[in-house]
Write the structure tokens for this entry.
Amino acid sequence: MDLDSFKYFTPILESVRMADKKRVLITGSSGLIGGVIRNKLGDEYDFSGVDFNHEPGFDPHVADMTDLDTILPAFEGIDTVIDLAAQAENTTEWSRIKENNLPSTFNAFEAARRAGVKRLIFASSNHVTGMYECDDPYAAIVAGKYDGIDADNIPQISIDMPIRPDGPYGIGKAFGEATGRYYSDEFGLSVICLRIGSLVKESRPLNIRAFATLFHHDDLAQLVRRCIDAPDSLRFDIFYGVSGNTWRFWDISHARDVVGYVPTIDAESWR
């Protein structure tokens, strides 16, 4: 085959290769988490995005997630949606949560339903249960006061415990989990909610609390991969997104049992 013929067939072969991959739409695709997922898993899935702006090297569908009609085209033909679109700071005021996060979250579920998407992975947050950190031993752990605490026997905060949001942001994420439960029960959408821990650009602990709550980029990629590829029979679930930190107090045994999540990073590596 001469060079010109090879150039002709290259885009065709690339199209065939991409057709074998699951089509995954990321809302809020230009944010930190979306970037990590695309960087770590870009060879495994056919990613597309929805965001406010174009991004160098990635061309998302430009739209406002609070406007349902404008985002609908991006959901067509998608296998899995990863919904990251939100004002992501825990200090975000209720007015911004109400105006942006709540409608953006609802619209992601509704657009997925209308487009016949099979699964939606919702980026929830540890702040859905953040008030447990006011209680011991969690208050002591996040302050770095480990004396008298057995790291191997820390009572784990599990998905079976009542929600205790620590602010408007956590309330908004609890709304997302409730919306996911409804769309799963009412419409059969497979929904997985990830209560994401401390995930930062540097992918290492930046404060004392993060030695318990770090969610390393490698572990994020593993958990997302396992959620995308989980059996269709998984209808609704919630997993904590956190690395295998020595002082971790969020339960990951459930994610291990259901989707096989086994984190490889311990924040103690940075002590």
User: Anything to note?
Assistant: Strands lie at 23-27, 46-51, 61-62, 80-83, 119-125, 190-196, 236-241. The radius of gyration is 19 Å. Residues 9-270 form a domain with the Rossmann fold fold (CATH 3.40.50.720). The chain has one domain: 9-270.
